[in-house]
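--- STAGE predict ---
source: upstream dedup step, 1 unique chain passed
mode: sequence only
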Amino acid sequence: WVGLAFLLWNTPHGTTIGFAHGIDAWTYALNQCIAIVRYLQLSFWPRHLALDYGFPKALVFADIWPYAFVVCLLLCSAIWFGRKRLTLLFCGAWIFVILAPTSSFVPIVNQVAAERRMYLPLLALVALTVLTIYRMVLFVEKRITRDRLLKFAAALCLLIAIALAHRTIRRNQEYQSEIALWRSSIAVVADNPRAHNNLANALNASGQRQEAIEHYYRALAIDPDYHLAHEVHNNLANALKADGKMQEALAQYHRALELRPSYAKGHSNIGVAFLQIEQYEQALVHLRQAVASDPHFAAAQFNLAIVLEGFGQVPEAIEHYRRAVQIKPDFAAAHNNLGLIFSNAGDVKTAIYHFEEALRFHPDFSPAQQNLASILRAQQEH
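--- STAGE serialize ---
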């Protein structure tokens, strides 16, 4: 606990833990009453599991009093019965003390609950359950024959095993794809903007663009002030651009940059969008801002080099192409473009080097194959 206090004092998690990020201790504690009861329920019957439970909600005591009553009852029971049996006191303390750092009053602002927080407390719950069943068996054994007891126990264990195996199979099916996993999370916590954004990303990657756009809009409708709203606007803009809705996409890119002016990915993406509609001056401005915000952003370096090359600023374009391949050595397109520049400048040796580098990392990269073949053919003819 001393170590924990020291780490918290030094804010190792930046904007994710602490009292200075918009969630007060009382609100977080109210949320945790619901979370703890849910952990206990899932410990005995793991149905409606979720990868992401979202963010703490603005609750009042009237919203959660039944959950608070259960938590207080369990805590008081552990203390009351633990006065005579230290085993019960130890198990109760084990559960509540281990849960306390994440499930009491210190806000974890980016995740209100997580099933993994129950892993260690579950040890005591398992022990208590096994001991309780053992006591029940001893009590029943005095009233019925051992043979009948064993048959009943075997049948009961078989039914429980089948039921839990079914739940395991269903959960594994949800893990078979990213889309299924995020759908299952939304089914449990429908008002989680992060889950809608992640589902939309997965849908967009699989080509289901229209549904992806719907979930991006849903994420923004749930919480327009979501701390990653700039990313959602950017992702939505990418999907709209791919769907041919360029003006709507530009509006979403601008909104992302209003929320986060130094957002390198947003500047890069809107720069590419302006490049596609041949507004080169605008593209240049945003791509320069992208590399200024994040000098290690290889794609932004590459796109800026393309625009600079189009403006005839070849030396500066070469510099940015080289930065792109320094950051990402397997950047085949950047190597290929460098090869073309040096080929046109008559530096055949350097051109061949970059074409070969592109093919070393990506042997099937056809532009580099064609360019290398052309330059080698020209050498043979001479």
